[in-house]
Amino acid sequence: MQRLLSFDRAPPLAAPLRFFLTAPLFAALAGILMLAAGPGVLASRWMPAALAATHLITVGFMLQIMTGALIQILPVVAGASLARPLLVARLVHGGLSTGALLLAGAFIFGSGPALVVAAALLASTAVVFVLAAGHALWGVPSTSPTIRGLKLALLGLLGVVLLGGTLALSLAKGWGLNLPRLADLHAGWGLGAWAGVLLVAMAYVVVPMFQLTPAYPARLSWWVPPAVGVPLLVWTGAAVMGSEGVIRLAQAGIALVGMGFATFTLRLQRQRRRARADPTFRYWQGGLWNILAALAMLLFAALRPDLSEWRGWTPLFGILFGLGGFMSLITGMLYKIVPFLAWLHLSNAGQGRISAPSVNKILPEKPLLWQMRAHFGAVALLTAAVLWPEGLVWPAGAAFAVANGWLAVNLFAAARLYRRRMQEITATQES
């Protein structure tokens, strides 16, 4: 897989880096919101604070980082360079940042007009990104599982936008739709067809490259994304028809596919060529185990629907799958991608005459290790807070805010070092 990478086609570092630096601030804001809202944030997924915190994480953190990563990955992995990547990055970053804040405010204050404006801004921003990425991918043959996965993920993002816009309009206008069923489907497309397929496609590259594992088998690599997409399409059709039995069958299928991929990735990690486990490796291990636990919940709930009627089922699933799972995998990738890109651009700028600092100096391991412990500690507290919200939701929210603030500090430190060294290289070359 690594022979396909074309680092000479990488966009300017400023294009993806703006997403990576601001995303942790939205997650920290979600933690502050949990701290301010108190136990009510875990009482129901329809509580204003719960909706706001959820979308600060899914839009402000996850969507930002994934779009930033795609801006970097498309030309390097697929040979699909975005036209004017800096302009696309500025437009998309501004739209997602403003839209995430406006959406959270609309939920907190119960403003229907603000909800419609936020949904329109986020939808238009996502469409701009999909059009730019789709134009870059147009005509690029799907010669690898990663390229096909990237294309399928972009289609998944359009599905998320369509369902999210419908939900927002239904809430704002009082349409008589089945909101719980529509919200479940929106989450399924967001976490499955968009985030899940994208992370699978990226894992094919980053796991062997950065964790020094064997490559994923070709047959598995080609079939995992469609194996997620087909049950989601069945789920969508069943939701329209109102067939609860088929919906549960589709959910069980998605759970089994995801559990199979997570289990196989853990197996690959046991075969890695590097004996010592660094924080990024531990992030992936912890994230995969959390995803396995969440998907086991989904599988059991599909087989026994009464299990999902427990008040704490939805927040527990969201914490395990979203915070303990996807956020852990994303952060683990950030801790490899950001210093690697900084080293790559500094090396190119130095032109072999001025050496770049090593990756480990750009982002030293010790602060990463402590931030990782803070993250998983916050996830553990949030998990326990589902069972005892009156006593643990405040320390859990504070811990989550601290962990993500710490992530921002670490990434900003790497960005400052990069900027300082780039200024030194420019001054040396001009003298």
Q: How would you characterize the overall build of this protein?
A:
The protein has one domain: Cytochrome c oxidase-like, subunit I domain (Cytochrome C Oxidase, Chain A, Up-down Bundle). Helices cover 81% and strands 0% of the residues. The chain is built from 13 helices and no strands. It is globular. The mean pLDDT is 90.
Short descriptors:
about 425 residues, Cytochrome C Oxidase, Chain A, mainly alpha, 13 helices, about 0% strand
Using the CA coordinates, give the radius of gyration.
Answer: 21 Å
Total DSSP E strands: 0
Overall pLDDT metric? 90
Helix content: over 70%
Main pleated sheet: none
What fraction of the residues are assigned to beta strands by DSSP? under 5%
Instruction: Count the DSSP helices.
Output: 13
| Overall number of structural domains | 1
CATH class: Mainly Alpha
What name goes with the CATH superfamily?
Cytochrome c oxidase-like, subunit I domain
Shape: globular
Kindly report how far apart the N and C termini lie: 41 Å
List the helices and strands and how they pair.
Layout: H1 14-37, H2 48-77, H3 85-109, H4 112-137, H5 145-173, H6 179-211, H7 218-241, H8 244-269, H9 279-303, H10 313-350, H11 359-362, H12 365-387, H13 389-430
Helix pairs in contact: 1-2, 1-3, 1-13, 2-3, 2-4, 2-10, 3-4, 4-5, 5-6, 5-7, 6-7, 6-8, 6-10, 7-8, 8-9, 9-10, 9-12, 10-12, 10-13, 12-13
